[in-house]
Amino acid sequence: MSVHSLTTRMTTTRLRQMKQEGEKITMVTSYDYTLASLADAAGVDTLLVGDSASNIVCGNQTTLPISMDEMIFLTKGVVRAAQHALVITDMPFGSYQISTEEAVRNAIRILKESGADAVKLEGGEEILPAIRQMIQSGVPVCGHLGLTPQSVNQFGGYGLRAKEEKEAEKLLHDARLLDEAGCFLIVLEKIPARLAAEVSKAVSCPTIGIGAGPYCDGQVLVLHDMLGMNQGFKPKFLRRFAELGQEVVTAVGDYVSAVRTGTFPSLDESY
Ligand code: KIV
């Protein structure tokens, strides 16, 4: 980690420069002040207030139910925590698909009310007019291609995307369009590593992979997954960098038994 990275606020132009200089970009999801402060202190470049909050924070099966108000509420805490990292907020399902006008109004609302630096949207050519208009209005946009979880009902599951030639060609085409429109980043989720490499070479903006292999310009993981807090979730692409889930269960269990046996609080822990 360079000194520069801890003392200056991350910007969209610096992220582009990192790609040009071959410096890998890091991103983790964040949904609250406390974990976002820790991730920021660790030196992560970008914090994504993902709509995966619908699963991780709210316990829903999919990302579809989370609302604009809920995303804005969660983002405010992350923004207060971010001393260094650039904060990107997911636009929730239904907030940008209906019309360009509504999409731009919602993107501007997210920036104004939450303090986020940028928004992320899922999709390619179909939502290009909205993306163009947002960028022209001064809203930095991060694209998201491949496995786009808001389309889970169309895909019929969370499997690998763009295995077939036709879908891979569309993805490459969409990536070029997003890049030309001025997206400052593109997330590539669960696609073959070779395709992610081709896309990363074809576009000028950085690509951020999740389950997309090592050739992207950066990587993103859901923080709760990489910390081992989501114990049943073990896809091939996920590396757990800690086992906090087990630590929490052990610590809370120790607390429960200390209270029940009368060993907590002690007189030293009393006034
Ligand atoms: O919502 C989310 O967490 C995401 C990441 C998986 C990229 O979109």
What does this 3D model show about the protein?
- The protein has 271 residues and is α/β, with parallel strands linked by helices.
- It contains 12 helices and 8 strands.
- The chain has helices at residues 3-7, 12-20, 33-41, 53-56, 68-81, 100-114, 128-136, 152-155, 165-181, 193-202, 223-226, 244-261, and strands at 25-29, 46-49, 86-90, 118-120, 141-146, 185-189, 207-210, 218-221.
- Strands 1-2-3-4-5-6-7-8 form an 8-stranded parallel β-barrel, surrounded by 7 helices.
- Helix 3 (33-41) crosses helix 5 (68-81), helix 6 (100-114) packs across helix 7 and helix 9 packs parallel to helix 10 (193-202).
- The protein binds 3-methyl-2-oxobutanoic acid.
- 3-methyl-2-oxobutanoic acid (KIV) is lined by residues 29, 50-52, 90, 187, 189, 210, 220, 222.
Give the topology, please.
Elements: H1 3-7, H2 12-20, E1 25-29, H3 33-41, E2 46-49, H4 53-56, H5 68-81, E3 86-90, H6 100-114, E4 118-120, H7 128-136, E5 141-146, H8 152-155, H9 165-181, E6 185-189, H10 193-202, E7 207-210, E8 218-221, H11 223-226, H12 244-261
Parallel strand pairs: 1-2, 1-8, 2-3, 3-4, 4-5, 5-6, 6-7, 7-8
Helix pairs in contact: 3-5, 5-6, 6-7, 9-10
Going across the major beta sheet, what is the strand order? Answer: 1-2-3-4-5-6-7-8
What is the H/E string? Answer: HHEHEHHEHEHEHHEHEEHH
Oligomer: single chain
Cα-based radius of gyration, to the nearest Å: 20 Å
Q: What average pLDDT do the residues reach? A: 97
DSSP summary: helix tally: 12
Question: Which keywords apply here?
Answer:
disordered N terminus; eight-stranded parallel β-barrel; alpha/beta; globular; binds 3-methyl-2-oxobutanoic acid; 271 residues
